[in-house]
């Protein structure tokens, strides 16, 4: 009997935001990455040329070796929605319609031709629906043999959210909500109104919410929407402008909330904080109602989630604590980037009807800690060998100390304990928006100054933004109020009461942003103003070196938690290559950089040559 031929499927997402490519071989994820990491253009929406090239290189393939290419939605149906929406609002919206048309007529509408041209691919191209791709990305890599599936985002073709069920090698969508009624677009409208960037500032709104009071909740529920018990709703469209205009909110919205949107980069006011808190409360309520409805319908203990709203880790944390599901698995690349993975998986399981291997068969719920998904810790991007890192360092004569492999963890742990901030560049880059211990900036969570130092001197971002902790998996429940793993930093849990520092009566009177500098726990740098933290759990199986480094820190200090923030500065994508990492390191006030085995001390580095064109130097284009 001859060996069966390998089947390679490339999934693509492009032309909205966060273009990406994902390659699977016989149903196994081989490589996945967002285009922004290669082009250095945040949320790059263009065709993912570099991400495709990386995926093919990782598998040692050419485009003509692929069996299928899958695109994450159906462009013709999306175009139909654009036309119907325009006709419904015409002549209002002519300007936005005319701005959208050239790209549609040149690239988006004729996606089959675009893919053939961009990739020189002549084989079969599959087009799953947008929310089908999201659902596939949520269920197929999960550790569950069957699960409820919830997808929530801005909009796909027509659907804005879907409820479904996954069993074996099939995902079935049971119900949908349709445009213009969208939880993602509602949240984005408040992101826009409070002065943050649409499609990228939503997590800032979530971080701002604990500083505010939920004083606008009733206004939202009474004036902006008609919310049903099952979680479905209709928006009052007179308050929104996204159907026909170039902005998210209308004059009626501005009148309702007493003024125009906040100007970007201007002072954040108490009103902005209260609005952030209010829309967060409403979002969580909708998520809970939808989850309860879905649970009643499918009666399963497991829930899988994807879509941009599934990145709302505060809502996810509440679902885990208060919702009807015992176990929740969220796709780490939950936004549009993950659609590339979902489209490839849908092709493998639905189109080719291939079976699915999972690890949870006959595993009781209380043993779920031992389950392993097939996402490979989402470490699916490029890795750089010590030889490649050394070649880069030598080329520019950059001083570095090479550490033996068994010294990396203890030496970095000692630096963290001494208050240093370190760029951590190890192994394969993360797929999805979170740094998970491959492209991270790390520091001491016990250090009282660390939050402000990292925000102002390293990340160059708003002072109110909290930092996330990474905790050794076996210690998570001793530090945080959580009893399941959170490997992808997509769950928020409170710091345990015994680790908190009670506020004084004077501190209780503080308002809004004044609360920022109050020390709340014995790990103050990662404890948000409401005692919450967006935690990542790590184990030796998924990310051994990162785990060993935190373990070494724990052995030195008794603290199993460090700060982990993404290795980038505000407005830039997470670093991908050694040259990206070095440039970011030199442009900030980080103290050390560890790349592979090479430790770089900032004090020893020559001034950064800003005129080097890294792309040209390393032939990235």
C-alpha end-to-end distance: 44 Å
Question: How many alpha or pi helices?
Answer: 21
CATH third-tier fold name of the domain at 378-617? DHBP synthase
**Helical residues, percent:** 25-40%
Low-confidence stretches: 361-368, 617-621
Instruction: Please report the total strand number as a whole number.
Output: 21
What percent strand? Answer: 15-25%
Return Rg in Å.
24 Å
- CATH architecture label name of the domain at 378-617: Alpha-Beta Complex
CATH class of the domain at 378-617: Alpha Beta
In terms of structural class, how would the helical and strand content be classed? alpha/beta
Mean pLDDT: 92
List keywords for this structure.
621 residues, DHBP synthase, 21 helices, disordered C terminus
Concise summary:
With 621 residues, this protein is α/β, with parallel strands linked by helices.
Question: What does this protein structure show overall?
Answer:
Helix 7 (183-193) runs antiparallel to helix 11 (270-298). The model is unreliable at 361-368 and 617-621 (pLDDT under 50). Strand 7 and strand 8 form a beta hairpin. By secondary structure, this protein is an alpha/beta fold. The strands form four sheets. A nine-stranded mixed β-sheet has the order 13-21-20-14-15-19-16-18-17, with helices on both faces. Strands 3-2-1-4-5 form a five-stranded mixed β-sheet. The chain has a five-stranded mixed β-sheet with strand order 8-7-6-11-12, with helices on both faces. It has a domain at 378-617: DHBP synthase, CATH 3.90.870.20. It has 21 helices and 21 strands. It is globular, with a radius of gyration of 24 Å. The longest helix has 29 residues, at 270-298.
């Amino acid at each position: 009997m001859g060996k069966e031929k390998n089947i390679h499927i490339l999934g693509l997402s492009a032309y909205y935001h966060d273009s990406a490519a994902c390659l699977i071989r016989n149903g196994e994820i081989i490589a996945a990455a967002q285009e922004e990491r290669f082009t250095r253009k945040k949320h790059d929406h263009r065709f993912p040329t570099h991400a495709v090239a990386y995926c093919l290189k990782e598998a040692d393939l050419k485009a003509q070796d692929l069996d299928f290419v899958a695109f994450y939605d159906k462009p013709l149906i999306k175009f139909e929605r654009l036309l119907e929406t325009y006709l419904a609002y015409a002549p209002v919206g002519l300007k936005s319609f005319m701005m959208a048309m050239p790209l549609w007529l040149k690239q988006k509408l004729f996606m089959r031709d675009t893919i053939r041209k961009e990739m020189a691919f002549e084989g079969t191209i599959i087009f799953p629906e947008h929310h089908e791709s999201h659902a596939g990305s949520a269920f197929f890599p999960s550790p569950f043999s069957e699960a409820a599936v919830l997808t929530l985002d801005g909009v796909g073709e027509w659907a804005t959210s879907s409820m479904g069920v996954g069993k074996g090698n099939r995902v079935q969508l049971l119900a949908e909500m349709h445009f213009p009624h969208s939880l993602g677009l509602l949240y984005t409208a408040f992101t826009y109104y409070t002065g943050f960037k649409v499609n990228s500032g939503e997590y800032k709104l979530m971080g701002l919410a604990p500083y505010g009071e939920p004083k606008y909740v009733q206004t939202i529920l009474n004036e902006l929407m008609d919310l049903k018990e099952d979680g479905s709703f209709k928006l009052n469209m007179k308050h929104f402008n996204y159907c026909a205009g170039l902005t998210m909110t209308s004059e009626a919205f501005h009148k309702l909330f007493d003024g125009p949107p906040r100007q970007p980069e201007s002072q954040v006011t108490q009103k902005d904080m209260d609005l952030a808190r209010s829309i967060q409360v409403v979002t969580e309520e909708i998520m809970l109602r939808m989850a309860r409805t879905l649970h009643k319908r499918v009666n399963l203990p497991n829930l899988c989630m994807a879509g941009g709203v599934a990145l709302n880790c505060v809502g996810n944390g509440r679902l885990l604590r208060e919702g009807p599901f015992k176990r929740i698995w969220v796709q780490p690349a939950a936004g549009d980037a993950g659609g590339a993975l979902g489209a490839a998986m849908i092709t493998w399981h639905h189109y080719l009807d291939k079976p699915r291997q999972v690890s949870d068969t006959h595993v009781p719920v209380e043993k779920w800690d031992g389950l392993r998904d097939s996402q490979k810790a989402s470490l699916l991007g490029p890795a750089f060998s010590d030889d490649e890192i050394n070649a880069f360092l030598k080329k520019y004569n950059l001083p570095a100390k090479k550490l033996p492999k068994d010294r990396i963890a203890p030496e970095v742990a000692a630096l963290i304990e001494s208050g240093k901030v370190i760029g951590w560049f190890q192994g394969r880059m993360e797929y999805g928006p979170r740094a998970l211990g491959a492209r991270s900036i790390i520091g001491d969570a016990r250090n009282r100054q660390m939050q402000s130092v990292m925000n102002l001197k390293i990340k160059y971002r708003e002072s109110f933004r909290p930092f996330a902790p990474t905790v050794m998996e076996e210690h998570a429940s001793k530090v945080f109020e959580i009893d399941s793993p959170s490997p992808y930093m997509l769950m928020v849990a409170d710091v345990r009461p015994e680790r908190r520092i009670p506020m004084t009566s004077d501190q209780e009177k503080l308002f809004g942003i004044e609360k920022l500098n109050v020390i709340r726990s014995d790990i103050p740098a990662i404890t948000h103003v409401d005692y919450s933290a967006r935690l990542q759990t790590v184990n030796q199986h998924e990310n051994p070196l990162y785990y060993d480094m935190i373990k070494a820190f724990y052995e030195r200090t008794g603290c199993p938690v460090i700060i982990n923030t993404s290795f980038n500065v505000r407005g830039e994508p997470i670093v991908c290559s050694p040259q990206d990492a070095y440039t970011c390191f030199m442009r900030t006030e980080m103290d050390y950089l560890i790349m592979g085995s090479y430790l770089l001390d900032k004090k020893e580095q020559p001034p950064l040559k800003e005129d080097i064109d890294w792309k040209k130097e390393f032939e990235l284009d």
